[in-house]
């Protein structure tokens, strides 16, 4: 049904695609796999008409698509859920669902539109007020709107670019059922994810992309995780999660007392021990991000009391926390993690400019280059030139740069929110090792993650949240997906 | 004598100049630079036009750069004229003091400076100047009003812009003439200035100002506008509110459109401030100076009160202004 | 409509001002003054509605003041050459033409709206001065009908206010119930998403500049109608008033949020401030100062909503 | 520095203009004219450098023209009361004070810079008119030293140009090599990330408005030095010239991108355009029109770089 021949695309000097071939059959769920920056999203945008290929041909149902555009693709029945949200935040759910129909000029019958929108959302097995403004929805709800939007018209080919990274397990399950239903109706699906487990259970075929080229297309039944990883990375990955060698120092701890956030019903308390990685689990939207923000002082409204270093703290602003050696890796890399326009070097230096400047505040570039160079090596960040903009790096490497920002200072406590969202397997494993190394070196680590595998692979202890309340904790020996989930949904 | 003529023959300060001078010397090598305050008012446009034609009439070379309504820009404009190597600067200063340093610099470089239309501060060592006698013009209007209207006067003034010395002279002259006239007739004054609006010297501004004045002070029976353009704008509102016959409208300048209004009796009087006379006179003074004649430092154009009676004498259908 | 009003504090500011105004000056609530007020705000109201649409897309139009001047001049010049309807049509068409150019620069040449319309502002005014040679031009006898537009009234309400109301109602309907209106919001809120939905972002942006210029051209004719002259030095700084009105109406300069209704209230608020200060004989220096303070207060008050 | 110059087309535009100017007018390359040109651009240069810093953070400052007017008035008034150094200090301090207020509104009250500084623009100018009662005030005898600043020269280069060069060099150094400069860029590109890195976004934003107002106050004194008077109706529209200079210098109005060096070239470009048109006797109407066209061409040419 869909056939891509020799697709090439470059952005300025970056050759994102260097001759990709892809063939997707009717009623097939076809996975696309590859490292960050392999060109998956770019390829999908070419199919959907958001980008125009420099070279190559697209055949859809045996006819060649010429002059592709979002509009043309839609008319062929190609729908896509982009990796970055492509909703209009100030419009209602209904309007977002029907945005592509706005291409035709006409008056709007609100009543009818709301009704259609509601029934569309309901038909997917979800429920929400379609009149509400998208900006006010949770990330998961927004993703559901994206999916509904993609299905709002007659779909023949559905493309999903990392749809699951912002969904909770329940929603993911629902999504998979839905995709299988579509498949049964003969719809073809292209599915992109960095989660190999998902691909293995969901898809029929997997095409691996590397450096803008097709490596191989395999039948899902014939491969396992290790094989996929080696296809993708070009080498064996070794151990995904680091070993836990060092004993936890039970004496030395950060005590968090009477913490309250926008969503907590009653103040909560917990400890982090030295050398321990404390994970925070829960469903999406359970208010975990706010716990970190409250501790770090970036969510100003909320109170807490931190016993740490022999004193009581309550950070009102991030700079206070940072002065005490705290760091935070925020959830949204692009929005609040990195300064994409600044150079890699400047991003790494951003949190402790004081250290590389003389007493007049002028920056000692030799010193800066030396520190940055050391960190780049230590974190194995793949960079050509540290003076290039952060935006030129792949997602995984960007994440390492943002992590590197904190290693540059005398780090005592590290708060991490979704460390590997959208990061490929290879880079993910490296990030895990870096985090474990930090803990082993005596840094207190508190980590929020929605990726159950990662949460269990890396944490020493998991605190489970539900609707802003701490439901309880699971210790490493008792780790199981079921145990955590059970607590997260409040089942006893 | 009719009243207006009597008024017009009142004592005049400064010297009036006779026109129609022919140069004996060949002036074709002389570069004359003219800088006006701006080119966004017809008055200034007309003045520039007259200056230009007069300069060319004497065969001199003409250059111009205007102040674009900003003293700093006028300073720059004068500097740019100096860069072009002018020998004579004819200046209509946007501000009496702000151009003094650059004028003195010009003089130090050997340029002779003539001032036209607006006065410059005495610190500037200019050669000669021609201006309208604004105070006297104001007085003429004030006197005329005192002598023609005997009721209690509720006066609204529409001024140009804040801090403008010409406007100040005009209205103070007006008040002086009015007080003097009324005192002479009744041994007391009988007027109130009930409002001062600001009209930015243009039609629209006059209209807006009048609108607000009439809303707050509907009983106004005299309007003095510091130029005719604002009076013309204000008239629109006066007419719209049906107060055409209640309000005596007085202006300054003698703009062509105002003459039409005088003829039809919509305006009652204006005081002449003619760009044509100003422009021709100043260039004549330039020519005389270049011929080695001695010229007066301060010269006034004739002050004339123009009303329905004598408007035809001054009306020029082809005038730019 | 009710929801829209209650979402912002604009209505409250408006009501407070209304009450204060009628208390401090007993000339304020006279029919005469109110009809003046309406006549004064009508042109700036039209311009602000156009500006509102531009701002909704995340743009800005600094050229409106110059358009008012130049279209006025052009109409006045034409009034000597051709009959009224022709002069009217050509003037409005020229207004649209200016909008086409601004829209082209912003939408298709991707020049930042601030810069593109800043350049248009000086170009258009320069042209106005060139055409008029700096002089105000009174409207010729063929076109004295325009004076009726400027000064006449129907049912006691000035024609210009009627036009404002009609335009307001039309824009209100389009913004709420027409696909085009929703597209304007969408473009200001997330351009990329709109583009990916197969909608031409360019044509939406382009259109708002054209519409704004068209409304501004109507405003220009209203102003000519009031004064009977076209002059190139009118309307300086008008763009700032229009922007201030839109913002006092609670719209966001980054686009995607705002309401026409509140924009209109913003216009009335600014108009009332000027009017009442004139009635109270506040000198124009102080007027400026007070206006600035009120803008800040209004915006801070807006912010404290919810 | 070389890289910075080559990254944009500003230098090319500048050079083209320079060559064209010297070809079309033989008065252009005279020492006298060049020193005039420098004197003319010095104040706007200072203001543009301040504006550049503000724009780097994604802000804008519309109040600069008003600051020029009001500080000039204040200095002139003070010159009758106190000795020169005191008058100088108070004037500069007042400039800083205005910047503190704008900065406070933008950084701490989170009012959109366009609106906050628009309000400040009318407030400050209103105050200038109030202080001066609208009249130009000549500098008193104590402070005639200011005239030297405005008109004097050292090594053939006007003092004001020296000041501009010093300020430029200082800002250049700070932007490139100082922690503060780096923070300014960072704030302009991603506020949230900067905040989470422990940098106070507020204080960075606050500072740039203060600095811009300070530079503008210096410019105001330069202008008083040239004219010998303080007057409240000077500098109208100056903000637009400064913004245009920054943009012609290739900076992005959304912040995070730009260079001081190119800003300075932008100032020189605009200054040269004005100067050469005066030399060529272009009427001021046409000057406006041409300036607008050149702004558009410059920006389009900028865009076509790389
Ligand atoms: N608009 C763009 N401009 C410049 N370069 C781009 C652009 N979009 C993508 N690239 C570059 O093209 C390459 C491929 O990017 P793409 O987003 O397709 O990767 P991906 O496989 O989807 O990665 P990920 O797994 O992180 O989503 C990367 O080097 C990226 O930096
Ligand atoms: N902008 C917002 N406005 C109102 N409510 C919000 C907003 N963002 C999030 N919420 C609410 O806050 C709560 C916590 O959301 P949040 O996404 O921070 O949780 P989380 O557990 O950190 O999830 P994630 O897995 O996405 O990190 C949810 O109840 C959600 O509905
Ligand atoms: Mg991708
Ligand atoms: Mg979260």
UniProtKB/TrEMBL annotation, chain A:
GO terms for cellular component: plasma membrane. The keyword Lyase does not apply. Keywords: ATP-binding, Cell membrane, Membrane, Nucleotide-binding, Repeat, Sugar transport, Translocase, Transport. It comes from the Bacteria. InterPro entries: AAA+_ATPase, ABC_carbohydrate_import_ATPase, ABC_transporter-like_ATP-bd, ABC_transporter-like_CS, P-loop_NTPase. One of its GO terms (molecular function) is ATP binding. CDD domains: ABC_Carb_Monos_I (cd03216), ABC_Carb_Monos_II (cd03215). It holds the Pfam family ABC_tran. It is found in: Cell membrane. It is a peripheral membrane protein. Residues 2-236, 248-492 form the ABC transporter domain. This is ABC transporter related. It comes from Pedobacter heparinus (strain ATCC 13125 / DSM 2366 / CIP 104194 / JCM 7457 / NBRC 12017 / NCIMB 9290 / NRRL B-14731 / HIM 762-3).
UniProtKB/TrEMBL annotation, chains C, D:
Its main location: membrane. It comes from the Bacteria. GO terms for cellular component: plasma membrane. Keywords: Cell inner membrane, Cell membrane, Membrane, Transmembrane, Transmembrane helix, Transport. GO terms for molecular function: transmembrane transporter activity. The keyword Lyase does not apply. The keyword Transport applies. It holds the Pfam family BPD_transp_2. It is found in: Cell membrane. The chain crosses the membrane at residues 12-31, 86-107, 114-132, 152-175, 206-225, 231-253, 260-279, 285-301. It is a multi-pass membrane protein. The lineage of its organism: Bacteria, Pseudomonadati, Bacteroidota, Sphingobacteriia, Sphingobacteriales. This is Inner-membrane translocator. InterPro entries: ABC_transp_permease.
